[in-house]
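INFO  loader      accepted 1 record
INFO  loader      residues=288
INFO  predictor   begin
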Amino acid sequence: MRPSMFSFIFRLFWRLLILGLGIVLAWLAITEVYPYADSRLPAFIVVLLLYCISTYAVIPLLIRLFRIVIKPDHIPLYVTTGDGWPSDPVNIALIVTNRDHLIKKMNKAGWYTAEPFTFKNAFREAISVVFNTHYPASPLSNLYLFNRPHDVGFEIPTNDRGSARTRHHVRFWRMEEPHLYADRKHQYAYKFWVQKFRHLFIGKKEMWIGAATEETYPIAIQWRTGQLTHGGSDESDKERDFILKTLKDASVVSKVHTSEPGEELRFRGQQLRTFYVSDGCIKIARLK
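INFO  predictor   done
INFO  writer      dumping tokens
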């Protein structure tokens, strides 16, 4: 049997195995867990518990089992969730001296530095979304590029209360060479960016790769897991241009470069109704 045929059969078998496991767990939840819990708790509480267990434990576990064999492999033009699914388009890059320089200039342009994603901050963000309370530096959930979560995030609330309900936001990753023994696809991702932007490196500067989108409504559902998340606009190019406008208005940009546009980028984001369409350009701003 040829290696390619063996790989196809094995991957098909793995998909069917994960599907079968999911069906078994769903059957147990419906026939065993629900009747047992329903006799002891109100129906609403039972449904809520089953939803939470399914979307935040069982489905993520099945996806992680699926990803043991079926690993994502793509040109790094979008960032991913922790499970490897596409999330936000990569559409901006900033050339700065270091992290402190990046934060200082973004703050000057009116952007809040997002607080770390901890349980305490996530709970405070949930309160801000539900009750529309002031929290302009709310945390951003972890998304991944170069096999690591973002290094820093920024946001500007788009509502009068300064809450986490709706906001402009962007995540940045410092472009750095992966560890020598990193997975080959992450080595490839780094080489892709170096080759694409090597003509822009002058002196001791750092490049920070960004993924920017606008969150336009407070609650949406992730179509793969059923988990709750923010709802976003699919016009990511407008968000990229908005960031550059705020930086230019603050007089912190020395020059803007535009990468050669590739093919129009289309893919489905995390939310049920979000299909991103991008012009394929990445705009690179050199900050003063």
